Amino acid sequence: MSILDLDRIQVQASVADKAEAIQKAGELLVSSGCVQPKYVAGMLTREESMSTYLDNGVSIPHGMQENKEDVIKTAISVLQIPEGVEWEPGEMVYLVVGIAASSDDHISVLEELAEVVEDEDRIRSLWKTEDPGLILKELVTG
Predict the structure, then answer these.
(1) What would the mean pLDDT of 33-52 be, rounded to a whole number?
(2) Please, which residues bridge with residue 88 across strands?
(3) Is 28 left (phi over 0), alpha (psi -120 to 50) or beta?
(4) Which residue is catalytic, options 62, 74, 109, 113?
(5) Is 105:48 a contact under the CB 8 Å cutoff?
(6) What is the DSSP string of 33-54?
């Protein structure tokens, strides 16, 4: 199993706020058997203590250190919000990348994500695509 699969990518989502966005990204991890449900609460707690906003419309919510035991297997989820959601004052997020990791297995995906985030045209194409396969391709195989 890959760190990112199509069953953990949701395109064309709509959310009211960043808490709902984190909840939905977390639910993708729960429903695919990657984390225990209480991991999602840890993702929300982490966001309250420190923003997970990266840049160029991307955030990477993840659990707290105490939530490592709730990770069944290392994985990421992607929630695409074409209309965006305000993450920080004046900062809109269009891609929420939920991270569940009990080790450093996710580092290579984060490195690829960092490259994609730096390329404004590339990341903007992922904001609006209706093809989850494109997101999978860009984040896993670059």
Answers:
(1) 96
(2) 91
(3) alpha
(4) 62
(5) no
(6) TSB-THHHHHHHHHHHHS--EE
